[in-house]
Amino acid sequence: MSVSVDIKMHFHKFDLDVAFEADSETFGLLGASGCGKSLTLRCIAGVETPDEGRIVVNGVTFFDSEQRINLSAQKRKTALLFQNYQLFPTMTVAENIACAMDPKLPSTVRYKRVKDLLKLFHLHGFGKKYPARLSGGQKQRVALARMLAAEPAILMLDEPFSALDSHLKACFEQELLDMFEGYDGTILYVSHDIDEAYRFCDRIAVMDAGSITDLGTAQRIVTDPQSVAAIRQSGCKNVSPARKVDEHTLFAENWGITLVSDDPVPDGLAYVGIRAFEIRAAEADDDVNVFPAIAARVSDSRFQRTVMLGINGHSGGNEVEKFVHWRLDKLVVPESELVERGDTLMIKLPSKQLHLVTR
Amino acid sequence: MDSLATVISGFDFRPLLVSLKTAGAAIVFVFALGILAAWWTLGVSERVKGWLDSIFTLPMVLPPTVVGFFLLVVFGRSTAVGEFLIDHGLRLIFSWPATVIAAAVVSFPLMYRTVRGAFEQLDQDMLDAARTLGQSEWWIFRKLMLPMSWPSVAAGTMLSFARALGEFGATLFVAGNFPGVTQTMPIAVYFAWAGGDLTTAGVWVAIIVVLSFAVVFGIDACTAWLSRFKKGEALG
Prior knowledge:
The complex is a heterodimer of chains A (359) and B (236).
Chain A: E1 3-10, E2 15-22, E3 26-30, H1 37-45, E4 52-57, E5 60-64, E6 69-70, H2 73-76, H3 93-98, H4 107-120, H5 136-149, E7 155-158, H6 166-181, E8 187-191, H7 194-200, E9 203-208, E10 211-217, H8 218-223, H9 228-233, E11 238-246, E12 249-252, E13 257-260, E14 271-274, E15 280-281, E16 290-300, E17 304-311, E18 324-329, E19 344-348, E20 355-357
Parallel strand pairs in A: 3-8, 3-9, 7-8
Antiparallel strand pairs in A: 1-2, 1-4, 4-5, 5-6, 9-10, 11-12, 11-14, 12-13, 14-20, 15-19, 16-17, 16-19, 17-18
Chain B: H1 2-9, H2 14-43, H3 46-61, H4 64-75, H5 80-87, H6 96-121, H7 124-132, H8 137-148, H9 150-165, H10 169-175, H11 185-194, H12 198-226, H13 228-235
Helix pairs in contact in B: 2-3, 2-6, 2-9, 3-6, 4-5, 4-10, 6-9, 6-10, 9-12, 11-12
């Protein structure tokens, strides 16, 4: 049970150049839209052909440019789960599921399997309905049932929750997690949402402009991102180009400040990142990494207040990247102590919380 | 009223039958070939597609007399191909089958283009999804592409039928004007008028206008009815 991918493909926006191996695990491809993560799945499924490289799934060579092997999408039968599920509107739910099965199976066996799958996905009674009559969540379950009916050598899901409302998403995530638990092959999971990827995936590959820039356990990607794309994709709001000054100091260009880092600054430092909730209010300015700031903008969500800080005299304009985002937990900080718009204060960017990357 | 009765009682209605027979036979070929051509051109490379598309559309933009000329070249005695066909018993020129060929060639592009347009509108991801489920191209064509394109297929069929009914130039070139055999309604109008028989010409004009209107009206009704499932989708 394994997948090995090493492909290159010229594309109009970027060059896809992806290499990874996955065992019996849930392997995530995380990245912004248009970074090539869906394209990678499409190459594995055989509906897109790379220019060169190799794709091997469970010992079967799907594609090998040197040996001139390129199995058709039909032969690969990966049953890729598309973002919008792509149920066939001209067929009933039962027909949608049955059409994925091996046509050599006797119809009685197929009929029974359709029934079992409908039951497994809480769809009994929906077999004769057409997809247009289903809700978003039901469509997703039909798509999952159809994927399992095909008995693919690998499960590939392309943003399975992007078409669902957020309250539905929470319900169905649990069901999908249970399904993944009981599956012992490789699962490739494409997402742009770090929280979703974190819950589903054992390992995550962060993609940016067609390449994997960081690859590791979900935990490691969040605590110690190794590329600027990983910093951003792991939800870090504050990212700035940076250059090394000496062994433990660096200059953050967007914010115009010199920072001290506990970690040694690598040669060829390119970016620095710090999470919005790691920033602290400071009492005095004699500590390291403490700067005067002005709360240029303030916005509230239910449990958080986000403050856009202008540091070192930067106080306005539309250059959002020059602000430092600071997130305050409204459940912890009393209302009287929350920062208001226009407040001036001292803030601290803790020296042990800086993420330093060279790419 | 008496004069109308006399006109009708002595009227030769055979051109109506010839026209309906011709258009009816032509549409059978055009329906099948138009859909297959539309499907086929989707699968070829961009460059070949450009060429095929131009060739398949040409009969629509060429003057019918030019189409007629080409058909005469292919089926007449003046070329080797024509000689060969005639020697093997296919004497088509100035026979009823010639009206069918002329009508089919001229109306084919309407079917082809309408159906291809519908095929191109289909969500490619859906067709890809079927491929990754192991379904053959033929299955995808039968089970997905055709059913989802029925409104356009129906519209294309009726447009082609109307065009076949109205075919004049190419037909006159290759089939001539033999009453009861190759004389279609448009040809009857022309020869009645040319012969000074304005009453006959007028009756044919009236019949053609009513028939054409019915066809166009039918297209709209048919398309609306066949598109019902799309509305259901919007509601769902």
